[in-house]
Every structure is written in structure tokens, then in C-alpha cells.
Amino acid sequence: MATPAKRPREENNDQNNVNADLKTLCTNRANAFLKWFSSNDDNFFSGKVTIGPDGSCAQNGMVAIADVQEGESLFRISRKILLHPKSSSISALFEKDPVNSESGWSELLICMMQEYNTKDSPWKPYFDVLPETVDLPMFWTEEEREKLLTGTGVVEAVNRDNKKILTEFQSVVSPYLKKHKDTISESCDDLELYKRMVSYVMAYSFTEPPKDDDSDDFGEEDEEEEKSTIYMVPMADMLNHIANNNAHLSFKPDCLEMIATKDIKKGEEVFNTYGELANWHLLHMYGFSEAYPANHYDTVDIPLDLILDIAEEEAENKEFARKKSLFFKQKVMEDLIGDIVVGTKGILTDDRLFMVLKISNRVPQAIQDKCARRRGETETDRFP
Q1: What is the pLDDT of residues 153-178, one digit of tens each?
Q2: Is 188 helix (H, G, I), strand (E, B) or coil?
Q3: Where are the CATH 3.90.1410.10 domain residues in the chain?
């Protein structure tokens, strides 16, 4: 999705003029972007599809203007126009002085800010078609998140994101920008701009999958490098997402290609997939969710803490229940046990749930005996 936000259009009589102006703006920018994209001879854009607000479930998207058959190429994107640190105008700087960060995104974010602030950047038409603000929960007020999203897991995820964004900007990005102020625009040293670029990467970037061991499609690049390669991919990010998608992005040696995975009739929207993602994940990363029951990947996470707290309240032996609860919570902290995940067709972590319920319902001595027999554990290794 693109321009101006990842939110379905709302028909409101009080906003007709605003919506009309917005539609015109989206159309003009989409047309300019398509002209830029098509000006590269290595790119290909099918005459059977178009981009813009008309017919899209959101502000912009891709719609078929003629019947498309399964297997047809919708567009091909030359790797030359992918935006990433090695393709940016400051690639030599990164090669000389790499940016090391926990997220692994810092170089991409810095090069995006630099290209955004460069008037004659090759990617200017691309940035023009992106929204000024992406409607992600990270930009909502804390009150809005607490009121609307408590219990979904999004509040906790956003709080973690915001903390990491601020920490990495202050400790890594801003010092790097100041160090290289003769090369990088001073306008890049801006937390709000940085957060906007983070939202672009969250909502629009693509990660190239690692090649198969027996494949030589992608040359001799190191596999570890491929795993962490994140690109901004002009045109591919114009497509909206649904779980039941009808197109798929294929990574090839010299290009990326969007291919129809089923027949698409004239007037239908072309949808990509962002992955097998639950609604809470879609909302967190992309700013939208699918109405029930459209998303067959949707899940609900039941916090293990909730199960343990209830079990402790209902237990006859309160002290032993408390020890069991502490035992499991320690395992959660060690990342050995996670929450219970329920999908549309049942529990997806049934082994985890079975283990929790089994141990929670055992008598104290039975648990002690079981732990004592397991792998010759010492007294200090036993269950509390």
C-alpha cells in the first residue's frame, strides 16, 4: 500500500472535498511514479494493470484493467532501482565506516534519510508516492493504544519498538550523523524523520530470502549477508495485502518479478501477501487488519502468566502452586516456553499447552520424582 496512509477510505459527507483532493493527489503522484518507473528500460510494467486510488481497498493499490491469467508477469523491477545502503549515494561512506546496530536497520535508515533530503535523488518520485505519515499504532497516542488495543499484544510490541527506536537513534544514528556531517545532510539528524523512515521500513520493505544450498541463482554472495538484506522495492510496495492473495513477488538474479498466482478478472484488485501473519501483527507492522473470517492466519495469544495466575488462585496448595508458577515464569524469561497460541482451527502450540497443564495438575511428589529421574539431574536442577 502507499500514499497517504494504510487505512481504508471512509465515505463521509463532511469530508467529500478532502477526499476528492486526496484522490487527485494520490492519482497525480501515482502517475508520476509510474512514469519514473517505466523510464527505466530494465523495468517492465504490464498493460493489464494500473496503480492509483481507483478500485483499491486503500488509498493506493494495483487494479487489473484487463483479464490476467495465472502465471502472467505483472511487472519486473530491476535491481538497479532497489534502495539499500549499497545502492545509495553514500554507499562509499558505509563501506569505509560501517554502522553497527542491534536492529541491523541503521544503514538503511540513514541512506533513506539522505536520499529523502536530496532534491535530485534518483528515488525522489518514489519518496513522493510514499505517505507523509504511515498510520501505524506507533504514531497513535498512548491513550489511544491503551483504549483500543489492550489485550492484543500490539501495545507491548509498540512500547518495545519506541524504546528501541529512541535508544538506537540517540546512541548510534545521531552520533554517526554528527561524525559525518560533511557528507550527510544535517536535516537527517531528526528523530521524527528517523521514526518516519522506520515506519517505511516496517510497512514497505522486503527481505530477500536466503538462497537454497543447491541453487546458484544469486551468485557467490555470503548466505549470512543474504539473510539480513532488506530492500525498499519501488512498485512492489504499491500492492495491498490479503491472506488470500493473487500475486507473489519472486526474487531473481537481475530483477524482482510480481507474478499472478491465479486468474485475476478485469476490475479486481491485485493483492500481494506480506506473510502468514495474524491480525495483531498486521496492525502492528502495517496499520490494518482483515475482517473476520478473511484472515485464515489469524491467531490469539493467551499469555502463560494468565494461565499460571488463575491456576495459582484455584489451587488448594497455594504455596506449591506459587512455586510452579515461578518455575514456568523463569522458563518464559529463558525463552524456553512462550504463550499459548490459538489459531482459527485450534491450538497451534498444543505440546506447550499440554506440558503446562500436565505439570500444573500433578501432585508435588510426582513432579519431584519425575524431575529427579530426568537425565540424572542433580538436586539443584530439580523443580522447586
Answers
A1: 899 999 999 999 999 999 999 999 99
A2: helix
A3: 13-286
